[in-house]
Amino acid sequence: MKPEPITAAPADAAARKAIKPVVCYPVETLPRPDLSAYRALRDSLELVETVIVPPREAETWLVPAGHFCRILCSEGPQVGDLNLFNAHDLKERLYTGKTRALNGTHVGLGDQLFSNFPYLRPIATITHDTLDWYGFDEFGGAVHDVIGTRCDPYTHNLLSHGGQYHHCCHSNLTRALAKKTGMAPREAESHVHDVLNVFMCTGFTRDTEQYFMKASPVRPGDYLEIFAEIDLLGCMSACPGGDCSAEHSSDTAACHPMVVEILRAKGLPEGWAPPPVNGYDGTHGL
Ligand SMILES: [Zn+2]
């Protein structure tokens, strides 16, 4: 528990706290995707490849720019921890912090996923989400967060006083990336980054503002669909927490495989072009 405050509130404390917030990044000036142009292609999608992500393991796949990718719940409620890279340059990768700042704590239909500095551009657009009905529940929970980082053996070691567990999402992603690239595990690990928690239901407790999870509402047949704005390398772990209703970082939760489909449309969205890397000149005033 956090300690009680030791500083006396100033006389105008109530007035200071009553100031209304403003949204950090008003998105009226953010270029928005023409969602209808993307969705117009969805009737013509042709399955190119299917990838199975085994439970408590991770798998990689490629999505060419202009293709779609679906992440499906196949056999039972299961959370996936997703990393996305520029397929030609692993230094460019999903930046959940700025994606969160621009879209909110959880992403869904019409949101774009952004890459890190100095690239900062949309690398994927969410074109369908069968859980979009969920919204926010009475606890403040919602699905597909860009808040959590990924379960990892280091935090587990701290919280369990020395535990060694090798199938956290962080380790699963590391092994899968090492296998795909031929990198040594330590090098592959350095490319693993904060994830999009596909299907995970999370929020912050109203009383202590702590990150919480609860059983995912996902069911077999549900899927999250993205459009690749650039050539993407995807890497996803089927979390050892299963539906993340109780715990992760152990082998006790029921876990299920997940399915990834790569799909090709009969054309490209009208008016679409791959987004260029960010236009800032990079001189930082020097
Ligand atoms: Zn996990």
Automatic annotation (TrEMBL):
Protein name stated in the entry: DUF1989 domain-containing protein
Superkingdom as given in the UniProt entry: Bacteria
Domain DUF1989: 52-233
PANTHER family found in the cross-reference section: RE64534P
Pfam families per record: DUF1989
